[in-house]
Design goal:
- By secondary structure, the chain is mostly helical.
- The chain folds into 2 domains: 10-69; 76-139.
- It is 59% helix and 0% strand.
- It contains 4 helices and no strands.
- 3% of the residues are buried.
Length: 144
């Protein structure tokens, strides 16, 4: 089914409305004010989700209040990616340690250079993982 045309001949985009709550009709209204820059951000988010602006604001506020969504800063994606990279690096280092243990248990031929390289990788991976974990913990600080 084609979307209805607007007066200028362009196709109108269907905008989803927020679903009705099981608790009955919503009769209380809250006024929210934004400056122009904030409104652009909120409007873009609502458009990205194909949702009416007021419905998007209401849903987002309820999700945060119910703690089904935890608000984080815009760089949280980078922090999560760093944690993932750290986990991959730690997995590789663990594999190296297993190979060294296997070599030591079989004939004992592991060079000092090999040991130092693995220990250096362990230290680097732990530092990166700790830094990313601390950043995520800061993001999750309880709201006062």
């Amino acid at each position: 089914m084609a979307e209805p045309s607007a007066a200028d001949g362009t196709q109108r985009r269907h905008v989803r409305r927020r679903e009705r709550e099981a608790g009955g009709p919503r009769s209380t209204r809250v006024k929210v004010s934004y400056n122009d820059d904030e409104l652009k951000i909120i409007s873009a988010a609502a458009e990205r989700d194909s949702t009416a602006l007021a419905a998007w604001v209401g849903s987002a506020a309820l999700a945060v209040a119910k703690e089904t969504v935890v608000p984080v800063s815009a760089d949280a994606k980078d922090v999560v990616q760093e944690v993932i990279r750290s986990r991959v690096q730690l997995s590789r280092v663990g594999n190296n340690l297993n190979q060294i243990a296997r070599a030591l248990n079989s004939d004992g031929t592991v060079t000092d250079e090999q040991l130092l390289a693995v220990l250096s990788a362990v230290e680097t991976a732990i530092r990166r993982s700790d830094a990313a974990t601390l950043q995520l913990m800061r993001e999750r600080q309880p709201r006062s």
